[in-house]
Amino acid sequence: MAKEKTVYTCNECGGTSPKWLGKCPACNAWNTLIESVASVDAPTKNRFASLAKTAEVIVLSDIEASDVDRTPTGHEELDRVLGGGMVEGGVVLIGGDPGIGKSTLLLQALDSLQRQGKSTLYVTGEESGAQVALRSRRLGLDKSQVKVLAEIQLEKILATLAAHSPDVAVIDSIQTVYSEQLTSAPGSVAQVRECAAHLTRAAKASGTAIVLVGHVTKDGTLAGPRVLEHMVDTVLYFEGDTHSQFRLVRAIKNRFGAVNEIGVFAMTEKGLKGVSNPSAIFLSQHAEPVPGSCVMVTLEGTRPMLVEIQALVDSGGPSPRRLSVGLDKDRLAMLLAVLHRHAGVACMDQDVFVNAVGGVRISEPAADLAVLLSITSSLRGKALPKGFLAFGEVGLAGEVRPAPRGQERLKEAAKLGFSMAVVPKANAPKKPIEGMTIHAVERVEEAMEVVRSLT
Ligand code: TYD
Ligand code: MG
Questions:
Q1: Shared-domain flag, residues 228 and 96
Q2: Ligand 1: does its nearest atom lie under 6 Å from the Cβ of 140?
Q3: Does 165 sit behind a cis peptide bond, omega within 30 degrees of 0 on the bond before it?
Q4: In this structure, is residue 48 part of a structural domain?
Q5: Do 113 and 28 reside in the same domain of the chain?
Q6: Is 377 near ligand 1, meaning CB less than 6 Å away?
Q7: What is the number of structural domains in the chain?
Q8: Which residue, 244, 276, 308, sits at the end of a domain?
Q9: pTM above the 0.85 mark?
Q10: Using a 6 Å cutoff on CB, does residue 201 contact ligand 1?
């Protein structure tokens, strides 16, 4: 029988110490030791037991690779990010701001899995059973057979999982769960890590698919448990503005499917509903074009989406501000330097704000050209023409680099009635696209020149 004791493990090097120290004895890093549980086996008679025969070494091509069995949740957009559905024994971490819809989506998914004949368990640590019931009524899930457990103690949750062995279980949220083995408070890194590790082990051993809900801190990472991301099979993040109707769920890691796939939902009175054709939801509706706005096509996963990039350039104080929402801040600083150096447009004494409309986060560099054009449009106070869009990566030397799958992006834009585009030369289509004038450019200066001639 394995005994357990408390040790302190270094976050940096993995070294351990029997007591808490400010400095890791192994790597000398400060404040990196956190409490954890180690099991110590009673010393065995046979010291060489570990050298005994383990599993056999097999040639890779001889291993039979069977495709994993997936259970679709019945919510197409969720299945898309999961790579087809829930996988037996798979562990999914789903993160997002409070109030964005994590509990709502998971309750809907559990209910539809239950209706398909799967056994489900919803472990709630944040809300009481009555609150969960109230939500399920709001969602119109009357007579729902989903089993609910209001519990936050890990050992009891594990016992319930073992007793009921559900097909799918949701732990809402991992930050509320605590283990008796540790003295630190629920939500601390030590607790979150320990509890997630135990739950993951339980999932693998029993075949129950487990979904862990995690809260995100202000800076957009899961509170403490970035450490969780490597433990689980799939990591999904909720994005979007809680004030707008639309929510995105993005896969950032998936051992069973493609990453960077996104699912799009709309929050309605009856919970989250999938949006199967999301290409135009991130455009704001201006009757007439306004300065400081440029539309781009981003390609998230398999679907192109049109997103409006907005910029405001206004005279700033002695240390002007650069602020970006939904776009990388460092990249904005870099783009402003390129704009100055290669196109001769200076914003040194100006505040520059940029925003991707609708709370969407764009990580791909193909947004660069649209960012630059919206900034110059705001600076000059001149709107880009109606039906205009641009995309392409901008390099430090002022070159405009192609975006992957440019044709697809242009076709989607044409479908939505866009008629004019500035794109990287390598993305210019060989055959003309009906109803669309395309200006292919190789350098930032060229793009500026084209736009100046149009406005
Ligand atoms: P919730 O799922 O509780 O968020 P999380 O678990 O991520 O914290 O989402 C709650 C929000 O969604 C809340 O502000 C109300 C809204 N909502 C609806 O608009 N319609 C609904 O049917 C439900 C259940 C919630
Ligand atoms: Mg919740």
A1: yes
A2: no
A3: no
A4: no
A5: no
A6: no
A7: 3
A8: 276
A9: no
A10: no
Instruction: Tell whether 31 and 10 lie within a shared domain.
Output: yes
Q: Tens of pLDDT along 281-334?
A: 778 777 789 999 999 999 877 788 999 999 999 998 888 999 999 999 999 999
Same domain, 271 and 129: yes
Q: Is residue 431 part of a domain?
A: yes
Determine which residue's CA is closest to atom 10 belonging to ligand 1: 99
CA angle 361, 93, 200 (to 5 degrees): 160
- The answer on 241 and 311 residing in a single domain is no
Distances from the Cα of 170 to the Cα of 147, 158, 250, 345, 350, angstroms? 10, 12, 18, 53, 49
Residue nearest to atom 25 of ligand 1 (CA): 271
Nearest 5°: the CA angle 267, 270, 272 is 35
* Residue listed under structure tokens 């994005």: 239
| Ligand 1 geometric centre to CA of 101 (Å) | 5
pLDDT in tens, 163-199: 999 999 999 989 999 999 988 888 888 888 899 999 9
- Name the helix (H) or strand (E) containing 96: strand 91-96
Q: Which of 78, 103, 104 to mutate to test the pocket of ligand 1 (most atoms within 8 A of CB)?
A: 104
Whether residue 354 contacts residue 332, with contact meaning beta carbons closer than 8 Å, is answered with yes
Q: Are residues 235 and 112 in the same domain?
A: yes
250 lines ligand 1 (CB under 6 A): no
Residue-number span of the structural domain to which 342 is assigned: 280-454
Q: Is 214 in the pocket of ligand 1 (CB under 6 A)?
A: no
